[in-house]
Specification:
Oligomer: single chain
Number of strands: 13
Radius of gyration: 24 Å
Structural class: alpha+beta
Largest sheet: 5 strands, antiparallel
Mean pLDDT: 90
Amino acid sequence: MAPLVMLPFSDEAHTAVDALLDQTVSFQREQGRRKRGLKAGVALSLKATIAALIGDLLEATLNTESNGYCWRLGDRTKFKVTLATSRHYETLKKEWPLMGLMDVVDGFRGSDDWDGEIYHPNTPNKRWATRLRATSVLLSKLEDFGISPATLSLHFRTEQKKSQPISLRATKARDQTKTKNIQYAKTPLTDALESDVREINEFLSEWEYSFGAPPVLYRLFNNGDTEDYQWDMGGRFYGSDSTYINWKSENRKGIQIGGEATAEIDIKACQLTMLHGLFGVDYDVGVDLYEIDGFDRDEVKRTVHIIVGNGRVSGRRNPVQIKLLEQYPFLNDLEARGLNSLRLQAMDSNIMNQTLLTLKRQHNIPALPIHDCLIVRARDIGTAEEVFSEVFDEHIGVKPTLETELQ
């Protein structure tokens, strides 16, 4: 989806947006659709819409599953939570294709994955999703200012006040790759979840990062359509598609916070460690639980993830699974305890949430989450490891084995 909540961050971005604003107004004059210049307030509003749209178009360019398209519903009431206006958005949707800047296709259902040439003429108009894609002409113009999809975070940032701190998705069927978002009722629990994420984002916004604009994070919860849902599935931190969370590990090396080198602190064999604590089984801290004599570590890890992902042991007994069940017999009891990967994610995300807040409130230490690991300044390693370990023990009942690597 094109949330239209990005704004220019760098001088280059401001200059590029101004240039596209001037080009758009000039084109309208040439076509006889505008006789005079824009009033100051209108110009600012149109500029904000252009900036928000550019940010989404650049981000979508990296999405190969959607052929570089993002989408936006036709419902004008949805613009209240954006930085754009419906009127200016419609103007750009009309003018930019004529200017060769954007491809526009109307009448599609909203989906981050490309659903092919499937037109939905009988869908109510307000539920139509217009597909939008930056053309090579627009990308070339932005390149003139040093802006590209790969450098998006250096030039545009998400407006925190317009971002949604938590997101809830429906249960995913076997044949689905992604699921729809669910509108959730406001409760004291959701208020608390939202408040925590906003506090974390506000604190992170006070620091400078080598990758550009401060990240705006949200927590993604799953299976929200199950009966008597308790916000106990999923919940990990995510950001926009271009944020550091989605980078490969080698691309995260060199990240700096406040101009300082960083380190990545990882919980080794996180799922197995959590299960030891949840089943009341002791283990020797420092031991790699995925290391089993005679078996490839990656294969052991992969088998554990399959078992935990399914929430039960497979009926097909391969040698790795047989050995795992001998060494960790509690894996046989996952289904009886209702434990699976999403429930463990809810636990490790709560651990991460509390760790980030404790580092902020008690130590003034910024930390960037990546699921079950976090990035901190090198000088903060000792404190971060101590807090991370203590919070994990508080939630799970055992100390984790931490592995720290300088970036």
